[in-house]
Specification:
- The structure is a single chain.
- It is built from eleven helices and 13 strands.
- Helix 6 (136-148) crosses helix 10 (247-256).
- The protein is of the alpha+beta class.
- It has helices at residues 3-7, 10-17, 29-34, 73-84, 124-129, 136-148, 162-179, 183-201, 203-206, 247-256, 276-283, and strands at 40-46, 49-56, 59-62, 94-99, 111-115, 119-123, 152-156, 209-215, 218-227, 232-240, 266-271, 289-291, 293-298.
- The two termini are 30 Å apart.
- The chain has two domains: 3-118, Aminopeptidase (3-Layer(aba) Sandwich), CATH 3.40.630; 120-271, Aminopeptidase (3-Layer(aba) Sandwich), CATH 3.40.630.
- The chain has a seven-stranded mixed sheet. The protein has a three-stranded antiparallel sheet with strand order 1-2-3, covered by helices on one side. A three-stranded antiparallel sheet has the order 4-13-5, with no helix packed on it.
- Strand 10 (232-240), helix 10 (247-256) and strand 11 form a beta-alpha-beta unit.
- The radius of gyration is 20 Å and the shape is globular.
Length: 300
C-alpha cells in the first residue's frame, strides 16, 4: 500500500481508535503510518472490530488488538486464523501493543504473553518548570545552552527544512553507531532514517506538531509529536546536534511549553527500546507513570 492509499485510511483508523481508551503511543494513526515502508498493512473488519494486519517477509502479525466494542476471545481466534491462512501457526504470528486492561481477554492457556518495554508518561508542568534538585542537571543543561548559544531560535518546521533535518539525522546516527556495537541498535538507527523522513514529509497531512532548533541560522535539532488523546501529547522523536551541549534538554523543555501543547497536561515519550542508556535518560526526568503493554502469540 503506497503512502497516499495508507493516508486514506486515517479517518477509519482514528474513528475506531476513538471508541476506546488510547493508553499507548501505538494507538495512533501516526505510529501506524510511520512503519508503512516496512510492512504492507491490511485493514479488515472481524466481528465488527477493525483489525490491522502487518504483512512482511517473515509473516503476519496484528499491529494493535482488535479495535471495537465487541472484542472477545472468539475474535482472537479468527484473527490468528486469518494470519495463518490455513497454514500452521508460526512464532511471528502475534498481536502487538496490548494494554494491561485487555490482557485478561486472552486468557493464559492458549497464548504466550510477553511484557514489552514500558512507556514513560510525565506531568507536563514538571518538564517545563524543572524545579528542585530532581531537575538540577536539566536546568544546568538548558542554562548552559542559552549562555553559549546566543543566536538561537526554536520555531515551526517548514518543508524547506527536510533535507537539513535529515542531514542532521545522518550525522547523529553515524555518531551513535560508532559508539555502539549492538546490531539491534544499529538496525534501529537505519530503520528510523526512513521513519523520520516519512513522517517529516507527510507531517502536515498527519497533523504533526514539528519544531526545529536553529543555532546561528543552522538546524541544531528537530522534534515532533502528536495528540494521543485529549490530555496526552506524544513526543515521537527528538534529534539534537551532539556537538552542542544542552541542545536536547533545551529543545525538550521548550517543546513541552509550546503554545500548540497548551491543552495537554501529560507528555508520553514512548518506550526505551529496552536500552539501558535510553532508560536512564527517561528516568532522569522522573515519569509520573510507566505504562505497560504486552505481545501475545499462540502456543505453536
Amino acid at each position: 500500500m503506497n503512502e497516499r492509499d495508507l493516508l486514506e485510511k486515517k479517518i477509519l483508523v482514528e474513528t475506531c481508535l476513538n471508541k476506546g481508551a488510547r493508553p499507548l503511543s501505538s494507538f495512533s494513526f501516526v505510529s501506524l503510518f510511520a512503519w508503512g515502508d516496512f510492512f504492507d498493512f491490511e485493514f479488515k473488519m472481524i466481528k465488527d472490530c477493525l483489525c490491522i494486519f502487518a504483512h512482511g517477509d517473515p509473516g503476519s502479525f496484528l499491529y494493535l488488538p482488535p479495535l471495537g466494542n465487541n472484542f472477545d476471545p472468539s475474535t482472537i481466534e479468527l484473527v490468528f486464523a486469518h494470519m495463518t491462512q490455513g497454514s500452521k501457526l508460526r512464532p511471528v504470528n502475534r498481536i502487538e501493543n496490548i494494554p494491561s486492561n485487555l490482557l485478561s481477554s486472552f486468557g493464559t492457556s492458549d497464548y504466550n504473553q510477553y511484557l514489552r518495554p514500558v512507556e514513560y508518561v510525565y506531568r507536563k508542568e514538571d518538564l517545563i518548570a524543572l524545579k528542585g534538585n530532581a531537575y538540577k542537571s536539566q536546568r544546568h543543561d538548558c542554562n548552559s545552552f542559552c549562555a553559549h548559544q546566543k543566536a538561537h531560535s526554536f520555531e515551526p518546521y517548514s518543508e524547506d527544512d527536510l533535507d537539513l533535518c535529515m542531514g542532521l539525522y545522518e550525522r547523529w546516527a553515524d555518531h551513535r553507531a560508532k559508539a555502539n556495537s549492538d546490531d539491534v541498535y544499529r538496525s534501529m538507527l537505519q530503520e528510523n532514517r526512513q521513519v523520520h523522513a516519512r513522517l517529516l514529509k507527510f507531517g502536515k497531512a498527519l497533523g504533526l506538531v514539528i519544531r526545529v532548533l536553529k543555532v546561528d541560522g543552522h538546524i541544531a535539532g528537530y522534534t515532533f509529536g502528536f495528540a494521543l488523546d485529549e490530555n496526552t501529547f506524544c513526543i515521537y522523536a527528538e534529534i539534537a546536534d551532539l556537538k552542542i551541549p544542552g541542545s536536547a534538554a533545551y529543545m525538550f523543555k521548550n517543546f513541552c511549553a509550546d503554545e500548540q501543547l497548551k491543552g495537554f497536561n501529560r507528555i508520553n515519550t514512548m518506550d526505551d527500546f529496552a536500552m539501558p542508556n535510553v532508560a536512564r535518560a527517561k528516568q532522569a526526568y522522573h515519569p509520573s507513570e510507566l505504562v505497560s503493554s504486552y505481545t501475545v502469540s499462540a502456543k505453536c
